[in-house]
Amino acid sequence: MSKGAAQGAQLYYGQIRSMEKTTFKKLCKLVSGYCTAKPGEVELVIDGLIYVLCMLLESGNVIQMGEFGNFRMVAGSKGSNTLKDFDPMMFKKPRIVFTPGAMLRQLISGTSYDRLDAFSDPEEKKEEGGSDRPEIE
């Protein structure tokens, strides 16, 4: 809660909801609609891209993919008092970081938000005496 908020005060936060999941097969089919490659060929290229990305990230490379963005692997470590005491086993679990490029940053800057009607104010439900479960007739 915010500093100085009244006891028992509540805040409501927005959340982005995914409306649909796009499968890999559908993605390949959609991409093939923008070029002369067939969906199977697009799938082969993307599979090859993923394989090479993994190989290069494992070698410590930053992968620059033009306006799409960059991929890199990062990992922090525990500290040691002296350089001599540092052991590579002190590294924490690595993770892959994606930094969006110009194309995706532009997409983000033009984002707008809508309130979904499916989510209503819980206080309104209390007044209506409704339940969160549908009635079975």
In short:
This is Histone-like DNA-binding protein. By secondary structure, this protein is an alpha+beta fold.
Written account of the structure:
This protein has 137 residues and is of the alpha+beta class. Among the domains are: 21-61; 62-111, no CATH class. It is built from four helices and three strands; from the N terminus they run ααβββαα. It has helices at 24-32, 39-58, 102-109, 122-128, and strands at residues 63-64, 69-74, 95-100. It has a three-stranded antiparallel sheet. A hairpin with a 4-residue loop joins strand 1 and strand 2. The chain is flat. The two termini are 42 Å apart. The model has no long low-confidence stretch (mean pLDDT 85).
Keywords for this entry:
137 residues, 4 helices, 10% strand, alpha+beta, 3-stranded antiparallel sheet, single chain
